[in-house]
Each structure stands twice: as C-alpha cells, then as structure tokens.
Amino acid sequence: MNSESNITSLTEVKPEGVAVIKKDFVLKDHVRTLALECISERDKRKLEDVFTDKADKKQKTSKFEKRKLKGQNKSRGPTFIEEKQTKLCSYLIDNAEIDDNETTKSCIIDKCIFMHDILLYLKNKPSDLGNTCYVYSVRGHCPRGLSCRYGSQHITSEG
C-alpha cells in the first residue's frame, strides 16, 4: 500500500510524458563540463571568444554568432556549382525538333534558367565519347536525346 501511494505521488509531481523512476535510482542534476585537456588550442580560443563575448554583451545572439564545437564542414560552401545557363532544358532534351524559323523553344516551366537555344547548345556541346549510342542501337530511342554524349548516331547537325 505504501509503495502504491509513493508511485501516485510521483506521477502527480512529474509532468505528462516523463517516466516514473524509483527515488533510489534518481541521480541529482549535474552540470555538464567540458574537459579542456581534450580539445585543441583552436577550439579553446573559440571558447574564450564565446565566453568573453557573453560577458561583454548580454543581448540576444543570432544563429551565426552561436558557435558549436561539434561536426566538420559546418560552414563549408558547395563543393561543385553547375552552370545551369550552359545546360539544355530537360523539356527540350527529348522534344527537340527545330523549325526553319524557330531556333529557340519554350518549355513548360516558368522562369526556367536552362538554355533553350538548341543550335547554340549543339555548337558548344563537348565532343562525343564514342560513335555509337548503345541505348539507341538496342531500343531505337535514346532517353538523353540531344544531350547524349554518344549521340553522333542519332543527332544531326540541326538537332
């Protein structure tokens, strides 16, 4: 009977979603400390900067001012930036048929940043890697269309 009243008193004190633990096993709250002998000199300097900044100004800090010592490449930029203006629009890759008076086609996507001038793309396109397109020879149709690097078999100079 006594243990049941002890459990109910614990559940009344604890908020919902917190597991009830016997008082014998509950540890007192402790403050997490950082072992300074285990971190590098650069990280020690960062810590000193953070703590001196906190002492100097007690106003709110932005996300960028808060520094964590975890993880690598947190502020690393993109490793590869693709120039989208030199790539052919995906809508035109397969649906390219050039009329005599129309060298640019419009795609379905509004504000498309890819290239729509097929003749300019074919002029600037890198040379083919081979003479025959395996997919075209097997299926009779290449899904890469104009952008196929083995496209000399199925792409004419006009597209």
TrEMBL record:
ZnF C3H1-type span: 132-157
Domain C3H1-type: start-end pairs: 132-157
Record region (Disordered): 55-76
Keyword Signal recorded: no
UniProt feature, compositional bias: Basic and acidic residues: 55-64
Keywords linked to the UniProt accession: Metal-binding, mRNA processing, Zinc, Zinc-finger
UniProt GO MF annotations: RNA binding; tRNA dihydrouridine synthase activity; zinc ion binding
Any one of the GO BP annotations: mRNA processing
Keyword Metal-binding: yes
UniProt superkingdom: Eukaryota
Stated name of the protein: C3H1-type domain-containing protein
Organism of derivation: Clastoptera arizonana
